[in-house]
Amino acid sequence: MAASLLCSFPVRASQGPAVRQDRGFSLIELLVTTALIAIVSAMAVPLMTNASDAIKLSQATRQVERELQTARLKAVSVNQPMRIRFDCPAAKQYRMVELVGTPSVPAATDSAANRCSLANFPYPAADKDMLTRPNNDGPLRQIEASVSFQQSTTIEFWPDGSAHSNTGGVNPWPTIASPGTNIILVRNGKTRTVLVNGVGKVQLLP
Fold first, then answer.
1. Residue 1 forms part of a structural domain
2. How many domains does the chain divide into?
3. pTM of the predicted model, to two decimals?
């Protein structure tokens, strides 16, 4: 009876350790993955470069726009003509300077090559005596090294807020004609523009 019971159950052969089916990546799979990463990276680099160009150019243009706005406000508040001179005293630099003479009779200093120099005209001024000029010059500004002024002209703001530029070499400088004058900045072929019109409106163009 016992023997028949033992025989009624199938006897399983003893098995060794289970064989794992896991395996790593093949060489072909690794090469394909690497190629895809390289392609995506090559596509992303120009996009990142373009974005960097646009950001740096926009930042530089906004700085110039703010300095023009500051010069106009300063001219009105201190009742003195103010100028913004570009690429002065060196390329990529600009500065807000007070007119030493008057719009009708500018002094020789106003057109001097060193008018923007901090060594010759320090900031802040040595004194704040309203009878001493210049005492309203601003700090020397510099745009980002990779950005340049493609087009610029000295802008002169009068105490009434109007804007003028030196066209025709006459004094006083005529009011900027409609639709205005452009200050254009460039970086790697891309440009941004600040528009200044005769009533002194300073506008950052898209």
1. no
2. 1
3. 0.77
Domain holding 192, by residue range, is 45-204
**Any domain includes 82:** yes
For residues 153 and 158, give the distance between their C-alpha atoms in angstroms, rounded to a whole number.
16
3-state secondary structure (DSSP) of residue 138: coil
Least Cα distance to 150 among 115, 112, 194, 110 occurs for 194
Domain harbouring 148, CATH code: 3.55.40.10
Cβ proximity of 148 and 114 under 8 Å? no
Q: Is residue 8 part of a domain?
A: no
By the 8 A CB rule, do 176 and 198 touch? yes
Q: Note whether residue 63 is domain-resident.
A: yes
pLDDT digits (tens, 9 = 90+) for 15-62: 555 555 556 778 887 788 888 887 776 776 665 566 678 999 999 999
What is the longest distance spanned by two Cα atoms in the chain? 134
Task: State how far the Cα of 142 lies from the Cα of 139, in Å rounded to an integer.
Answer: 10
